[in-house]
User: What shape does this take?
Amino acid sequence: MNGIERCIDDEIPFEIPENWSWTRLRTLTSKIGAGSTPTGGRAIYQPTGVKFIRSQNVYNDGLVLNDVAYISEEINQRKSGSIVKPKDILLNITGGSIGRSALVPDDFDIGNVNQHVMIIRLLTPSIRYWVHAVLISEYIQNMIMSVQVGVSREGLSASKLMDFLIPLPSERESYRIINEYNKACNVLHQI
Assistant: This one.
């Protein structure tokens, strides 16, 4: 951030309802950070243990854990900064699946992430459905594609993600919108 907070008013991408506000993702979170692959790579995976979530486990409609890798509790503790908690949001930040995002279920037990997955932990977990919907929206997906870093242009840094502008309705309004969205999706699935 270089000690200087950019003015949101100069960056507003589109109009939102008067009772909404624009905020940077960083102001909504207690944690934004990716994991790392333990020394030894795949050789350290074991048949059971702590789930080690990789990009192939993160989908917009949830975590897919049928091919999840496992690491030991010892490695999990050494990588304590990337332990996944219930109600976190996970976001793929590299490769062909960049931008895919999953909500971690409320009953999730324990897991850790590798360097291709970012953990987003909200200060107010009750708005996670709204924030997740915004993250997978065309608006944010276009931003992800436009701010990728690196020569191969296949990575999103935590510092860039923290600066993303999020349109924020009241909590009650966010519930109403998400409920209407879910109803519409259910109708489409029945067709």
